[in-house]
Structure formats: structure tokens, C-alpha cells
Amino acid sequence: MSLKSTIDADIKAAMKAKDKVKLLALRDIKKVILIEESKPGASEELSEADEMRILQKAVKQRRDSSEIFKQQNRADLLSKEEAEIAVIEAYLPEAMSEEELQAIITEIIQQVGAKEPSDMGKVMGAATKKLAGKADGRAISGMVKKLLAS
């Protein structure tokens, strides 16, 4: 079952349960999927990688917003954003552990021959392609910096 079909089914369930937060988050994801599918040159069905990219972008946007709301002491908006993050993260694969991420990035560093922090661009390009949908970009970047600095 595609992500769009799953989201459609879960929207119906959220409507029946009158779960407004879940309904809002799911409708936003469905809107983005429909926009991506209707772009010129796009296929009718999104690939799994595109679906994961959409979900990760939605989570990142909400995390950025929640940081701003936290700084501004807006607990009401912060709790809404955090609830939507929890809803969307349920559709993402389980996050990699730090050890798994370190092992994969170490392997990528050896493959591209990176030896110093100035080689970060080479490693990031390969790492973001290989880890798309599996790890957050910020976590990848942090691990690459850590490994190249040591």
C-alpha cells in the first residue's frame, strides 16, 4: 500500500475519531503529496524515497517551528507542533542508532577517500544519498564532522 493510500485511510479514521491534531497533520501531508504528483514531469505515483523526503521535510519544518515557539514561550503552539511531529514520525522508518550511523559514515569516508574536514562535501553528498529516509540530515552532518575531525 502506498503512503498516499495509507494516509487516506488514516484520515478517515482520524475523522471518525475526531482527532483534530492527527487530521490536520495528515491532511497537510496529503496536500504535499498531491502537489508533488501534479508537478510537470512527475509520475502519478511517488517513489518511496520521495515519500520519505516529504515526511522528513514536514517533520523538519515542525521541529524548526517548535524551536521558535519554545524560544517565544508559546506553549500552546509548541504542544501542537510536537503532537504533529509524533503523528508524522509514525510513518517514518525507525531512526538509526548512533552506532549504525557511525559505521555507515565510516564506510562512506573510506569509499570517497576523505581524510580531513575540507572533504566534508564529498562525504555529505554520498551520505545523504545512501541514508535518504533513514537518518536526519543534521545527524548525518554532525557525525561526518565528528569523524573527519578525529
Automatic annotation (TrEMBL):
Listed name of the protein: Glutamyl-tRNA amidotransferase
Molecular function terms from GO: carbon-nitrogen ligase activity, with glutamine as amido-N-donor; transferase activity
The entry's keywords: Transferase
Organism: Arcticibacterium luteifluviistationis
One of the Pfam families matching this protein, by short name: YqeY
PANTHER family tied to this protein: ALTERED INHERITANCE OF MITOCHONDRIA PROTEIN 41, MITOCHONDRIAL
